[in-house]
Specification:
By secondary structure, the protein is α/β, with parallel strands linked by helices. Helix content is 38%, strand content 16%. It is elongated and about 120 Å long.
């Protein structure tokens, strides 16, 4: 509240000079402070705080019995290593002198560019990606609901014949390489991917490839 203190200005005596009255004001700031705190509390309670962004990575569960291991169909295995080098091979890995008498697996070098990793994933995941894009068009045309689209898209990406990507790395790869691969997997709509440990025979091939292709 504001108080106004007024005085009579003197001049009580007969010969006293009468002076003009002066008014002094005092403003009570308590209501304004209360209002400021009420507004601050309101904005704090109604604001949406930034949520931490997480990366979803699937780790395969260890089988109870090695006999339960199944062959991976339509699979690509990417191996990250030093100097942003990226290698891959298709299907199963066959080491030297394997029991199936298969030829030794050869590593193919690529990179993280749109003409390297992205083009490879787009070509190998084309059937699944086309199906998901068809579902996207149905959502735009209001033929199916968003919840139905998500369920059907997940089902398409999880089919047995869909592309499966295994990601491996040695101790010389960087987190940036990992993020780049996951970003490309999301862009190319690959639904089945997992981070797994590298075998010693794979590491030997990677070291040999790095020696054959030294960083410039």
């Amino acid at each position: 509240m504001a108080d106004v203190n007024t005085g009579d200005g003197g001049g009580h005596g007969k010969h006293d000079k009468k002076r003009a009255k002066k008014a002094s004001t005092r403003i009570d700031m308590t209501p304004m402070v209360d209002l400021a705190f009420l507004l601050l509390t309101f904005f704090v309670l109604t604001s949406t705080f930034s949520k931490p962004k997480t990366m979803e990575i699937n780790y395969p569960a260890d089988p109870k019995d090695k006999k339960d291991l199944q062959k991976v169909n339509n699979a690509l295995t990417f191996i990250m290593t030093k100097d942003d080098n990226l290698y891959y091979y298709e299907g199963e890995f066959y080491p030297k002198n394997n029991k199936d008498k298969k030829p030794l697996t050869e590593l193919i070098k690529t990179d993280y560019s749109k003409d390297g990793l992205r083009k490879l994933l787009l070509d190998r995941n084309k059937p699944t990606r086309d199906k998901v894009l068809e579902l996207t068009e149905k959502v735009k045309n209001h033929e199916i609901a968003d919840t139905t689209f998500k369920r059907m898209a997940v089902a398409e990406k999880g089919k047995k014949e869909a592309l499966t990507v295994l990601i491996k790395s040695d101790d010389k790869a960087t987190y940036k390489n990992m993020i780049d691969i996951v970003d490309e997997l999301n862009i190319t709509m690959v639904g089945k991917y997992a981070v797994v440990d590298m075998m010693q025979s794979e590491l030997d091939l990677v070291n040999a490839a790095n020696d054959a292709n030294p960083a410039k």
